[in-house]
Amino acid sequence: MVLAAAITEGVKAWLDEFPGQECTKLNGREGLLQLIMTHSHSPRTIESAQRCLTGQLCRYRGIIHPYKTNHAYHPKLLEAPAKSSVEEQKKSNAIWNPIKTMRLKTARYEAAVKWHNENSNNDKALSYSEVEEVVENIISSVKIGGEFLHALIHDESFSMYVGLTKRGLPEEDLRWLTARGFNLQEGRPYRGQRCRPVLLWNDNESSEITMNQGRYYLGFLSEIVYESGVLLNASRVEDAIQTKFDDLPLGRKLWRCVAKGKSSDKKDATEPKEVYKVFITYSTKVVDLLNKKQIKIQH
């Protein structure tokens, strides 16, 4: 139902006079209710008039009950994007998705640790504090190309990839450069999914950089920094190292998302036979080649 102009103009005038205040008997609520009762196209009860006034105040004020919001909250203008709009959802997701993801990862990890420690004939799963201790030791005392990682990370020419494999290092350390392979979750069908390399040649075809080209032209070398017979432990160390350096720009770090590979295997508990290796593949040529536009980043 379209309200009489007298009602909407009366509400707007009150909002101009009392911006950001609660509408009460002391500052004119009774008068607005009487205005609604008088100018409505059909008879109203006092309850109906109250609901109408609340709706009009919310509509023209821009936010609901500004006197109840945090002081830092900035009222939205009329016709600004609604909370359910695509623009506002993107802003909300940027805040809440990492929080929800971390909660989910934490719950899954705790469940996996509990199951492993209750059923394993292999090494025990590391606690959070033990993982942090391993990672701090790697950063401060393991040398990468003759230098400690905590020093190299401040070198603007240093780029690195942190990975995990149970294969030989030469088979796997530069596989992330290629479009081969895909981490398909158990039970999901394969539909031709391929990995998207982070680096490509900057030519007309955006050619893929082969593993051999990565070694000889991009100067990549690799070092194993941690080994374990328990995938859960190795994947947590990989995750923690990537998280430590995830604020580096793409090009200095060479992963898009933290620890996207498989994170645990129940066979490690019942049939231990694998050795999982966390490795760092690094180069001091990538940044220079990016600046010279000989290679490019695939976001």
Structure description:
- The chain is α+β, with helices and mostly antiparallel strands.
- The chain folds into two domains: 5-68; 86-185 and 194-297, no CATH class.
- It is built from eleven helices and seven strands.
- Helix 1 (5-17) packs antiparallel against helix 2, helix 2 (29-39) packs across helix 3 (46-61) and helix 5 crosses helix 9.
Structural class: alpha+beta
Helix-strand string: HHHHHEEHEHEHEHHEHE
Task: Give me the number of helical elements.
Answer: 11
Alpha-carbon distance between the termini? Answer: 50 Å
Shape: elongated
Tell me the fraction of residues in β-strands, as a range.
Answer: 5-15%
State mean pLDDT (0 to 100 scale): 83
**What's the oligomerization state?**
single chain
Largest sheet: 3 strands, antiparallel
Tally of separate domains: 2
Number of strands: 7
- Strand arrangement in the largest pleated sheet: 3-6-5
Could you list the spans in which at least 5 consecutive residues all have pLDDT below 50? none
- Rg over CA atoms: 30 Å
* Helical proportion, percent range: 40-55%
Which properties best describe this structure?
about 300 residues, alpha+beta, 2 domains, three-stranded antiparallel beta sheet, two-stranded antiparallel sheet, elongated
